[in-house]
Structures are given as structure tokens and as C-alpha cells.
């Protein structure tokens, strides 16, 4: 009789444990959305993803990454990198020129092309990442680095946008350099704060701001 009682004491905990597992199944493993566009290397910076450009005025350049949405159609919806030759590849239709167009102009062209396969396609083109137009801030600033030139940006705005401005009180605010090819421009941050706004230079693609 003793061995039977021992057997019962061993079996009961096992049964209770099995019942607990059945009542608390493992959580399901999350799966990615089937229509999510494939991520591209180097496109994980949230500060530039989904660049807020004006689709009617921004001019698409080589290396930009476009986001194309075709309503109710996943085959042509996704990310479109603009190659160095200015072309994008559109499934079924082949190559299409994107460089030099605004997103609105490209929308119109894509709509005309996709109309051969779809009835009244609704196409939206946006900038996922600006890679063709950038400026660089370096030196004694809180956040040195390269930034997308997605709108008209002045030297003052660029310094302010670089993580909150100057690194410390020793930064030379009276003679900030703007390097543009072989040219060098000078900007006095303190004068700007005093109301002298005439030398707040608008940046161009490839400019480098140096804070000493």
C-alpha cells in the first residue's frame, strides 16, 4: 500500500503541471505584415525616413529613395531607390526616369503607365529618404554629421537643428565657416541674434558648416 501512495504523490504533480501548460499556451510569434515593403540597407534613421518634402517643388535626385503607394495594389507599392543614372525600376514596365522630376510629376507618369494594367490607378509618390541633397555640420556642435537638405535651410537653422546648437561656450560664434567648393563664406551667429540678418546664408547641396 505504501508504494501505491508514493506513486499517486508522484503522478498528481505531473498531471497538474500538464493542465497548467494547456491553460496557458505559449504566446503566438509575431509575423511581419505581408504587404510591408522590404527594408533597404541604411534606411533605419528615423530622423530622415519619410522626409517631409513639398511634392510639388522638390526635385528628385540620384540616390534618393522614393515611397510609391498604389491604392489597393501591393504589386507596385513599395520603396523605389533612384539609381545613379536617375532611373527607377517598375515591375512589368521596366525602367523609368525619376531624376529631375518632382514627386507630383512622377505620380502623373506612373499613373499613365499603370493605367495599361489597372483601372483608374490612384498613385502617390513621396520621399522616403533624401540622399541626393545634403549638407554637413562639423566642429564644436552638439550633433555633427550630414543632414538631408529637404527644404530651404539657412546657416542659423542648420546649427540650431544640429542637436541644439553649440557644444560649449568656447565655440567661436563670431566666425562660422561655410565651405562651398572653392569658396568660403563667413557667418556671425552673435550678429544674427542682434538683428543683422543679411548674412544668414541659404545652404546649397554639398555645403559644409565649420564651427571652430
Our Rg estimate from Cα atoms comes to: 28 Å
Main sheet overview: 5 strands, mixed
Which class best fits the helix and strand makeup?
alpha+beta
- Helix count, DSSP H or I runs of 4 or more residues: 4
Return the CATH architecture of the domain at 134-211: Roll
Q: What gap, in angstroms, lies between the N and C termini?
A: 91 Å
Return the average pLDDT rounded to an integer.
Answer: 79
CATH superfamily of the domain at 134-211, please?
A: Outer membrane lipoprotein wza domain like
What name is given to the CATH topology of the domain at 134-211? Outer membrane lipoprotein wza fold like
Strand order of the largest sheet: 7-6-10-8-9
Into which percent range does the helicity of residues fall? 10-25%
Uncertain runs are 27-49
CATH class group of the domain at 134-211: Alpha Beta
What is the total tally of β strands? 10
Order of helices and strands: HEEEEHEEEHEEHE
Overall geometry comes to elongated
Q: Note the beta-strand portion.
A: 15-25%
